[in-house]
Design a protein that fits this description.
Elements: H1 6-27, H2 32-61, E1 64-74, E2 79-88, E3 94-104, H3 115-118, E4 137-148, E5 153-161, E6 170-177
Antiparallel strand pairs: 1-2, 2-5, 3-4, 3-6
Helix pairs in contact: 1-2
């Protein structure tokens, strides 16, 4: 939430007015214990509503779209590159956009399924050996745009390591802007 829009400020102002209004109503209470609990619950509820509304407003006011995305696997360096363009299609500025890339190895596709591919204990350290670990899912996050103005278009390119033991890999990526 790097940039607050006018909608963020209006929401915060409305919640402040509600907080003051409910506090004035609570101050009319004569019992001290009830007064303190009313003020405390008023504060907690208003803060929770404020946090939730900031996230909801970010989701619906700060929009970006990926365009012309290309994917390449470079065998000589065992990397995977994703490049393309990102466009701010919303009406407001965006603080930063993160691209979450998820590579999933399709290990359970054929008849060569072993027990370690289905179950791998994680509770005790003597069951697992870190040197032989071969994760079947790799998730990386990359910041592909910062201080993104409305209507702006930027090029991006990311490179991530590609494990040589991956076969029939599926790629998923998701864009988060705030």
């Amino acid at each position: 939430m790097a940039y607050f829009t006018i909608l963020h400020w209006i929401t915060l102002l409305m919640l402040l007015v509600l907080f003051v209004l409910f506090s004035v109503i609570a101050l009319k209470q004569t019992n001290k214990k009830i007064l303190i609990s009313m003020l405390f619950s008023n504060f907690i509820v208003i803060v929770m509503i404020a946090i939730l509304s900031m996230f909801v407003l970010d989701k619906y006011t700060k929009k970006a779209r990926l365009e012309s995305v290309t994917q390449k696997r470079i065998l000589i360096t065992e990397t995977f590159t994703i490049s393309g363009k990102i466009r701010n299609i919303g009406s407001f500025n965006i603080g930063k956009c993160k691209l979450e890339v998820k590579l999933v190895n399709n290990a359970i596709s054929g008849g060569d399924v072993s027990g370690s591919q289905i179950f791998s204990p994680s509770g005790l350290s003597f069951f697992s050996s870190k040197k032989n670990d071969r994760p079947s899912t790799i998730i990386k996050e990359y910041i592909i745009a910062k201080n993104f103005k409305k209507g702006q278009l930027k090029n991006f390119s990311i490179a991530m390591p590609y494990p040589p033991y991956f076969q029939k890999t599926s790629l998923r990526y998701k864009l988060y802007c705030h």
